[in-house]
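Dear colleagues,

For the upcoming journal club I promised to circulate an example of a predicted protein-ligand complex. I picked one with flavin-adenine dinucleotide because it came up in last month's discussion. The inputs are reproduced below in full, followed by the predicted structure.
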Amino acid sequence: MEITIIGGGLAGVEAAHQITRMGGRAVLYEMRPHVSTPAHQGDLLAELVCSNSLKSLDLQNAHGLLKEELRRLGSLIIGAADETAIPGGKALVVDRVRFAQRLTESIVSNPGIRLKREEVRRIPEGFVIVASGPLTSEHLAGKLTSLTGAENLSFFDAISPVVDAASIDYDKAFYASRYIKDGAGDYLNCPLTKEEYDRFHEALISAERVDLREFEKTSYFEGCLPVEVLAERGKKTLAFGPMKPVGLEDPRDGRRPYAVLQLRKENASGSMLNLVGFQTKMKYPEQERVFRMIPALKNAVFLRHGSIHRNTYINAPVCLTETLQLKTEPRVFFAGQITGVEGYVESTAMGLIAGISAFMAAAGTNFHPPGPSTCVGALVRYLTTENKNFQPMNINFGLIEGYSKKYKEAAVATALSEIENWKKEMLDSGKRDS
Ligand SMILES: Cc1cc2nc3c(=O)[nH]c(=O)nc-3n(C[C@H](O)[C@H](O)[C@H](O)COP(=O)(O)OP(=O)(O)OC[C@H]3O[C@@H](n4cnc5c(N)ncnc54)[C@H](O)[C@@H]3O)c2cc1C
C-alpha cells in the first residue's frame, strides 16, 4: 500500500522517510517549483523558510530535549541537521542549502518514495498525510475547509505570550473573574497603578518590532491588532481595552485597579498562563523586557513568545485523534505545522508521528504516540486535549507531564528513557529495519 503525502517540507519529508523505514512506500507531492509559496525561495525539499537555526542543543532546554528524542527515533531531518551543522554556539545552526540538498537527495534516491512535483488540489484516494504547512496552497486550503469545517481551519496566528505559572509573583496578583464577586475566579489578575501603567505604555509603544512581510499585510491584521499597535492609538486605549479593570476588585484593598493584565490557564494543570489579548509583533527580548514591567511579571519565565503571522492550521483538539487521524475521515492524517504545532523541529516531530501512524494504520497494526512525559508525546497531547482557546504551540517544559523546575534533570532522564521504551515497543518490534 502506497501512502500519499501532500507537501515536501520538513514534516512531509520526515513522514516519507519513516514510512519507508518501516518497509512501506510513499508518493510525495511537492508543488514547487511550478507553484510557490510567498516565503519559499527555491525548489529544494525541506527548505527552511526563515532562520537557519533549529534552536538549542542543550538537553536542559525543551528544544534541545525534543531534538534528542527525535535523534533517538531516527529522524531524517535531525540527522541531516547534525551533518550540515555550522558553528552556532549552543544552538543547532545549519548550512541551509546543504541541509535542504542533503534531504532532497535522500528522498530522490529512496526507492520506496515517488516524488511528484505537482500541486494537489483535492484530497487523493487512500491513506493520505496532509503536510502542506503554514502556507498551504489556496486550492487545497479550500478542500480542507470542507473536510474539517470552515470554523476549524485558521489562516493566521495571533498568539499571546505564555509564562510559567511558577514564575509569577502571587503577592502582586489576585484571582477573580470579571463581575463575579465570590468564588475562586478563572483569571489571575495583575494590577497596575496609573504610574506603572504610564511607564508600561511608554515602553510598549517604543519597543522594537519585527517587520511584517509583504504577504502578511492583509486585512486579517486589522481584525486582531498587536497590543503595541493598540497602545499607539491612544494612551488609554489599553486601559479601556484588554487591560480594562471594570468588574474587578483587588481583594487586598477592595479597590478597582487602574489597569490589569489578565492571565488565563493555557493547560489543564495551570502550569502555563496566557497573557490574555496580548498578541504582539515585538521582538522576543523586547517582549520579555516590556512585559516584565508589570509588577506580578517581574521575574516571569516566558514559555512561548507572542507572534502574528500567516499560518494555516486546523483546530486539532476538535479534528484529530492522538494518532493524528481526522476523526471524521480516519484515512486522512495531518503532519507538521498545519496540526497546530509551531516551529521547524515541532513540525518535524509531527511528521515523524504521522508517518509511523499512517504506516501502521495501513498495515492494520495498533499505534499510540509516546507518553506525555516526553516532548514528542506532550506535543501530541497538547494537540488533542480539549481547548476552547486552541492556538499553535512550540515545545516547552510547561507541556510535559510531571515536569518541575526543581527536578529538571530527572524529567529529562524520564523523557529519554520513555522514548527508548516506546521505540522498542512500537518500532523495533515491528517491521523496522533499524
Ligand atoms: C514566513 C515564515 C517564517 C517562519 N520562520 C520560522 C523560523 O524562523 N523558525 C521556525 O522554527 N519556524 C518558522 N516558521 C514556521 C515554519 O514554517 C514551520 O515550522 C515549518 O517550516 C513547517 O514545516 P511543514 O513541513 O509543516 O511546512 P513547510 O516546511 O512549509 O512545507 C510544506 C510544503 O508543502 C508544499 N505545499 C503547500 N501546498 C501544497 C499543495 N497543495 N500541493 C503540494 N505541495 C504543497 C509547500 O510548497 C511546502 O514545501 C516560519 C513560518 C513562516 C510562514
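Two points we might discuss: Residues 155 and 312 are 4 Å apart (CA to CA). The domain at 2-159+310-428 is CATH 3.50.50.60 (FAD/NAD(P)-binding domain).

See you all on Thursday,
B. R.
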